[in-house]
Amino acid sequence: QLQLVESGGGLVQAGASLRLSCAASGLTFSSYTLAWFRQAPGKEREFVAAIRRNGGYTYYRDSVKGRFTISRDNPKKTVYLQMNNLQPGDTAVYSCAADRREILSAIRDPDTYDYWGQGTLVTVSS
User: From CA 59, how far away is CA 11, in angstroms rounded?
Assistant: First the structure.
């Protein structure tokens, strides 16, 4: 079993930066593909970013490319999401997720992921 706990959310003004962290407990953290998703009020959950097991490949939704960076520290069992130049449209609950199977064709699909954190709220004011 893998448990995920996010932290680092908060209220910021447009243009600010935040770094989200997701700490994992359980076995074989390095065997999981990790991702961040977000869900704004009244909207469906959407993919933000993902990173493969060895950290060599990353994936982003178009609207965050160049502003957000996903990274992982396998010995620390933590995945990060550095978010720069935040905009009001980034306001959402951000959740990390883990997938043991690394299905690359579905890496942006939330149904692919087996384990989820509880989420952390990011609010960006204009």
Answer: 26
